[in-house]
Amino acid sequence: MEWTREQRYLPYEKWSALTLLKLQSQAAKSKYQLHYHIHPTSGLLNDPNGFSYYNGQWHVFYQSYPFGAVHGLKSWVHLVSDDLVTWTNLGQAVLPDTKLDSHGAYSGSARQIGDKLFLMYTGNVRDQNWVRASYQIGAWMDEAGNVTKLDKPLIEAPDHVTEHFRDPQILMHNGKYYAILGAQDKKNQAGKISIWRADKIDGQWEDLGYVDLPDMGYMIECPNLVFVDDKPVFIFCPQGLDKRITAYDDVYPNMYWIGESFDFDSGHFVTKQKAPINLDYGFDVYATQAFNAPDGNAYAISWVGLPDSSYPTDDEGWANCLSQVKKLSIKKGKLVQKPVAAMKGLRRYPESLAGDLEFDEGGQYELKLAIKKDQEGTLTLAADKNFEQGLKLSFSTGSHASLTLDRGNVGADVNVDYGTTRSLALPKNRELKLRIFVDHSLIEVFVDGGQEVLTGRFFAPAGNTYAKMSTGIDYKGSLWQLKDM
Asked: How many Cβ atoms sit within 10 Å of the Cβ of residue 345?
């Protein structure tokens, strides 16, 4: 189906309930549907928003277009959890229903203030000539989930940025409120992180300029600042970044930058890191949202999907998902991402693995492996009975140690213009520890305790759920089926 602009921005009330029900049924029956990750009930899911802790529960929202697998008139869908693993979908919470967000409720963040949750997000507005204006909007959500928007924007785009100015994150420091936003500087068309300050969250906001990171391509999206092991960490998505600065394979990368200190008022960022580092070495992670929770830990969740990309489920009227939540720490100057402890609560039917590895656990499992040093082999997942097709994870633990994820022969093609393999170098002559999560059309590989992560979508034919490792590999392993969330 070829979508027109008029269809994409048709008001929600113009769509029939029957259309939505058909889309929901189609998505629910998909052989590619996920069972322990957040996914859309219909249409398109993209950026995670409002990741926060409020009223004794974890909250996350996702940007949604419920009527098709395209980017159209966006709203926010709200989910809550008691453990960061099992999420309950509460439905739409923020609709594009005012003059400040008439063409979409775009990305933003949330923070508990008093007995309410304050939301701050980008309202997208287009004039009759389709020229865009963006407004940073505030809204209060009460304990019953009722959302009341402020009638005036908190922040309007300053003169020194282009129309690309969005994705606010709310922060608090020394009794004052701060917000960072992705921006494109008007003078040199460079990607920047803009920083703002206010005494009251719903009061007057002051422009403090840019964070003093180097120019990052032509635009920065979804900037986050978290403190991990007392160090400031920026997580962001630079568009158009020169690959001589940091190599990446996707259309746009998701990266991080660890600092030693950060001055909120001047934007001065002190760092020993020479360049941004890839947050994920797989295929599909973007728009990660992270925050510091009341327990002192930093947690992150990502959109598993990419801008300007298509996926096989588009033809079924739905697209994309969110990653599992990861707990962040720093080890030897690198960001470590680990599954939260509650992921173990999904495990059932444990098996200890030994000898030549071959199994069929369906499409929903966790596999834990420790592969001894000085070996080479391939682990094939999501394969047919004859292992002629499959998702391949090739490893070397010798003097030229590496790990490669190959989705080139697993089933339906996915964004092949950007390659079908993703690789990373590993410490040489060392044991390799892998913790692998498979959820029907999603794989998440945690390497050496989360020092690296590879995430990717794959679309294998129904019934291709077999797994096998090269013969003669010296390893220890465990396998669990995983429950639905």
From this structure: 14
